[in-house]
Design a protein that fits this description.
- The protein is an alpha/beta fold.
- It has two domains: 198 residues, Formyl transferase, N-terminal domain (Rossmann fold), CATH 3.40.50; 96 residues, Methionyl-tRNA Fmet Formyltransferase, Chain A, domain 2.
- 26% of the residues lie in helices and 25% in strands.
- It has a seven-stranded mixed beta sheet, with helices on both faces. Strands 12-13-14-11-10-15 form a six-stranded antiparallel beta sheet.
- Strand 2, helix 2 and strand 3 form a beta-alpha-beta unit.
- The chain starts with a strand and ends with a strand.
- The model has no long low-confidence stretch (mean pLDDT 93).
Length: 304
């Protein structure tokens, strides 16, 4: 069975390595040029991995560029796998492989279709995460399911890094057996129940701005939802300098500090304690731009 693989992020690298280790190396790998690494905060260069396994590699800013489509027509793949690629796929690509185009979505489809689904799972307090391999059609993440894993998550504790890694690990377990089934002539395709579908909206940089008037638990939830491998939550010091927060926790002592929302209450080594809107505090544990805000007594967010 001839296959092609398209991807450009950490999850793509995990999937590609797993396929190669299982003796299912694709005949063609398509990924982004290195100079476009900024298109994904979780970008992973597949070039070294392709070189290690002797795979044919193409770099293209678009999966349906003339060069990529010509290479695919020449290959005549039975299967195209798109794992970690943000571009929509058109009917020309969908119709090309004999078996179809297989996609990966890090949610329990049909729930949480769309964009930024891992942050949204935490922000909307979902109790289940998932990894779904599905057949890409002309809709948004609505094609028949080929393989799926659903798992329990604690939205009040989990970080998006943990959720990302869990979804990718589950996908890597599902993919080789599915490819083996397809090679053997079996093509699982369970239609999604569209009545149960939910759609996640795109998130922009400004959606990660911390509003210090919110309760501490909600600020903590935002920081956990948009941290690595994503850019992180942001705030501004009183004079406008931006700080990016990538890890935090709710301060353990309720009622100990008294102050205003966004006010820095204490600095203890590498821990900065900031008042939230409900009288509880947030301990900032990891950040970028520390020099810019330790000189200030107050941080300001969306509503401060």
């Amino acid at each position: 069975m001839k296959t092609a693989f398209i991807g450009a992020v950490e999850g793509s690298a995990v999937a590609l390595r797993t396929l190669c280790e299982k003796g299912q190396s694709p005949d063609l790998v398509v990924t982004l040029p290195v100079e476009l690494a900024g298109a994904h905060s979780d970008f992973a260069d597949l070039g070294p991995l392709a070189a290690d396994y002797g795979l044919r590699l193409m770099r293209s800013p678009r999966s349906e560029s003339d060069e990529v489509m010509a290479a695919l027509r020449q290959l005549q793949p039975d299967l195209v796998m798109i794992i970690g690629w943000s571009q929509l796929i058109g009917p020309g690509m969908i119709a090309l492989p004999r078996l179809g185009v297989l996609g990966f979505h890090p949610s329990p489809l049909p729930r949480m279709r769309g964009r930024a689904v891992l942050p949204w799972q935490i922000l909307t307090r979902q109790s289940q995460g998932g990894a779904t391999l599905f057949w890409i059609g002309e809709g948004v993440d609505d094609g028949p399911i080929a393989a799926q894993s659903v798992f329990t998550i604690d939205p009040d504790r989990i970080t998006v890094r943990e959720l990302y890694d869990k979804a990718v690990a589950e996908m890597a377990c599902l993919l080789p057996p599915l490819v083996a089934d397809l090679a053997a002539g079996n093509r699982p395709a369970m239609p999604q129940n569209h009545e149960n579908a939910t759609i996640c909206a795109r998130r922009r940089a400004e959606d990660g701005m911390i509003d210090w008037s919110l309760p501490a638990t909600e600020i903590d939830r935002l920081i956990r939802a948009v941290g690595p491998p994503y850019p992180g939550a942001t705030t501004r010091a009183s004079k406008g300098a931006e700080v990016t927060i990538t890890a935090a926790r709710v301060h353990p002592r309720e009622g100990y500090y008294i102050g205003l929302p966004g006010q820095i209450q204490n600095i203890d080594g590498q821990i900065v304690t900031v008042m939230a809107g409900d009288g509880r505090c947030i301990d900032l544990l990891e950040w970028r731009g520390v020099e810019s805000f330790l000189r200030h007594e107050k941080l300001r967010g969306a509503s401060c």
